[in-house]
Amino acid sequence: MPGVADLDARALEADAVDLLRRLIRIDTVNPPGRERPAQTLLAERLTAAGFECELLGATEERPNLVARLRGAADGPTLCLLGHTDTVLADASAWSRDPFSGDLADGFIWGRGAIDMKSQVAAEVAAAVALAGAGWRPAHGELSIVAVVDEETGGELGARWLTAEHPEKVRCQMLLNEGAGACFEYGGRRRYGVSVAEKGVFRFSLTTRGAAAHASTPRMGENALLKMAPLLSRLAAHSPSPAMTPQARALLAALGEDPEDSAGALARIAAHSPALHRLLEPVLSVSMAPTRISASQKINVIPSECELRVDCRVPPGLGEDDVRAAIEEVLGSAADGDFELAFTERIPGNSSPASSPLMEAIETWVAEHDPGAGTVATVMPGFTDSRHFREAFPDCVAYGFFPQRHQSLLEAWPLMHGADERIDVRDLHLAAGCYADLAVRLLG
User: Fold this and answer.
1) Residue 371 vs residues 184, 185, 375: alpha-carbon distances, Å
2) Known catalytic membership, residue 320
């Protein structure tokens, strides 16, 4: 049975590049999505290589792709997951056409080049190379799942698929987006592996006053001005680190003392302010004010002002922890300065950081980047992994798209931003990684 060593590496890399450029040229901005042409392209490639493919969707225009390569014996299913929709791209802010798929200066340019058509292309290219060479799992099954609608919550994608066709996508191991770009700390290169995602506990703050005509402002009591001190506190202060098991493991992996979280964050900030900005939200409850509303008329002093806050919470923490963080930063609502109301309560989700899948990733990193290591991280946002963890409690789901040449600090600002692009060498690296992991885990 052929394995990774038997694959034509140049052909694999060329296929990944060609596939990514084709995917970028298909406009799948969501809304409206229009992912069918991309899903059809992927299905044709996988079918030709020997996969059993189905297009399943809540609507005809937006199907999800499920491709399966069955093994010779029973065993676990490894799912390589990705989404083909993207966020909007304002062409006027780009130096290249965001839907060109240009290959220039060692990069592939376009919307989705990082989030996440690159990973989809690498996963599919790896699967096609293996199956096309005659490889079949010795035990278990390799599954490729490309979903729609991730960028607006997955209602028509992963959420629908896991609810309506759970037996077609049930898996014990899953690789998805969320981490993998390297960063340097303590003199060592690290590759993040996302093992958890923060929850969402959004809330509103309301201040109250008395309405009046704006021409005589002191005749009223301006609720909008009462909100100003709260905004100042949110700008100046962050909640203390929450030492969850994931936070402790992350600091320990970086060589820091989890018992000195404040000192650890200070040292990280001194080493790299940009890295600190990325890691601080992983270690604590984060609160970002995003919307404010007050008077509906320009000439009326507002009697009520409402601030909406996007609050993200580490897995394992709940409403009581959020209330404590709010009180730490803003004071108590009982004091009467504001009213607090929660608008969403979605707990975080996680997978065990120790597993055969993690061992395989660690081995791959050690072999392909000697001296580097892996770090289990928490995704500050969320991905489709949460739907699989909820539907299949025994599923170990990680976010991992290895990038050695385009670091975390270089890649993260491009996600959802202008001039999104991926280093071609990293696309090659990821395609080889997924082929290697499939063989390691499924035989």
Assistant:
1) 12, 13, 13
2) no
> Is 74 annotated as catalytic?
no
Q: Do 305 and 206 meet the contact criterion of CB atoms below 8 Å apart? A: yes
Instruction: Look at residues 44, 50, 74, 43 and name the one whose alpha carbon lies nearest to residue 2.
Output: 50
With contact defined as beta carbons under 8 Å apart, do 115 and 177 qualify? Answer: yes
Q: What is the mean pLDDT of each run of 10 residues along the chain (443 residues)?
A: 79 97 98 97 98 97 98 97 97 97 98 98 98 97 98 96 98 98 95 97 98 96 97 95 92 93 93 92 94 97 98 96 96 92 96 97 97 95 96 98 97 96 98 98 97
Contact by Cβ (8 Å): 274, 183: no
Contact indicator for 66, 60 with CB cutoff of 8 Å: no
| pLDDT at residue number 130 | 98
Integer Cα distance of 373 and 184 in angstroms:
10
The predicted pLDDT at position 333 comes to: 87
pLDDT at 235: 96
Q: What are phi and psi of 139, to 5 degrees?
A: -150, 140
Distances (CA, A) of 413 to 36, 383, 406, 410: 29, 18, 12, 6
Neighbours of 244 (CB within 10 A): 22
Which of 150, 256, 384, 420 does the annotation list as catalytic?
150
How does strand 300-301 pair with strand 349-350? unpaired
**Residue 42's beta-bridge partner residues?**
none
Question: Shortest CA distance to 199 belongs to which of 286, 282, 312?
Answer: 312
Dist. CA 125–CA 421, nearest whole Å: 19
The answer to whether the CB of 222 falls within 8 A of the CB of 353 is no
Say if residues 176 and 162 touch (Cβ distance below 8 Å).
Answer: no
Contacts of 249 (CB under 8 A, 6+ apart): 353, 376
Q: CA 189 to CA 412: how far, in whole Å?
A: 17
- Out of 85, 151, 177, 426, the active site residue is 85
CB atoms within 10 A of CB 132: 18
Sign of CA dihedral 122, 123, 125, 129: positive
- Give the helix ranges, DSSP H, for 392-442: 408-411, 424-442
